[in-house]
Amino acid sequence: MNRYFYYCVTIVSMLNLMMFVPYLLIQDRYTGAISSMLLAALIGTTMAFLFTFVMKAFPGKGVPEIFAMYFPKWVTAPLMFFLGCMYFISASIVLNGFAVLINRFLNPDTSSIVVLSLLSLACVYGATRSTLTNIFIVEMGLILNVPLILMILFKSYRNSNLDWDAMLTIAQYWRNPPKLNSYAAAVYLFTGYSGYAIFNRLNPPNFRLRYRWLIPLVCCFIMVTSFFVPIGFHGTEAVASYLYVWSVTADSMTMEYGFLERVVFIFLLLYLNLSLVYTANVWHIAMEFFKSCLPKAKPQIDPERTPLSNWVIACILGLFTVVTSYLLDEKQDLRLATNWLILRVCVEVISVLFLFVLSIGAGGKKQST
Q1: Cα gap 255→150, rounded to integer Å
Q2: Helices of type H across 173-213
Q3: Domain layout of the chain by residue ranges
Q4: H or E stretch at 261
Q5: What kind of architecture, by CATH, is found in domain 2-368?
Q6: Under a CB-based contact definition with an 8 Å cutoff, are residues 60 and 201 in contact?
Q7: Distance between CA atoms of 282 and 178, rounded to whole angstroms?
Q8: Which one, 97, 200, 273, 333, has least CB within 10 Å?
Q9: pLDDT tens digit string along 74-115?
Q10: How far apart are CA 203 and CA 224, in angstroms?
Q11: What is the pTM of this model?
């Protein structure tokens, strides 16, 4: 079961390569992005380690069941609904962003709303599957896509067009103090562990998480790559001109493997697969939080039949995503994503520390018994 935890960490860190995280970091490249990334690596790793302690103290239980052990329904229901909304927004931002990318780079003749509607239908179906099935979907998605993505990332460092002087120039600004926007963007790369707020239900009582040193290693590699490689390709000034900076960066690379020449098409297709897997996975997590608010809610890891509530909640999530995309433009989406990232920082720290305190109490009870 160790690998499933690291699947969640990997998919969150890698997917944000194509979203607003690199853009927000690059905007502060002279004014605190480097120190923000260093701080994010420290605090993000600490939060991840604390959360793994919580998992060990409550094997087989998700966050809704943990809260239900200590608080009445009228207290836990609003909290679970709020957490469900936080997860839902993260996946909707990703799906909406990729609908725009597909419309812009792959199929400009089709409306982004039509593309988003089709993607939402696929994600709704994936979200309604069982918790066990969803973690298997994440595994298959990563196995099929991550090796090619890593190959492209490593080849980017060997590209003759990469300007190492531009990267070293930006690195000299590490003394500037961190900024909230940059820190919120950078630390989000370390939050893949939060998927186990629901998937901890799959862990047996004797579960032990090993190789935790992989968390900072993987996340720091993705964070450094997402920030410095675009600067090396586009320069210290021009790099700030692009919203989806990695789509343009991928378009700057070529490969000599027969018909596989333009990297951007392969890169976008690979990340399209990851975005569908991620959105279906996170919508499932949000759905489980919303279901925990219902009376007589009972978690099921792998039910024989898909509950009707799964379809109702998932369809509402998909419909809300499409309607929101119709009402907001790209600038408003960016503002929403930035504010959500800042809010998520506060929610993450409070949630993890509070769960950590509960886990210490649970460990004391086990020793006393």
Answers
A1: 14
A2: 180-187, 196-199
A3: 2-368
A4: strand 260-262
A5: Up-down Bundle (1.20)
A6: yes
A7: 29
A8: 273
A9: 989 999 999 999 999 999 988 988 888 888 877 777 888 888
A10: 32
A11: 0.93
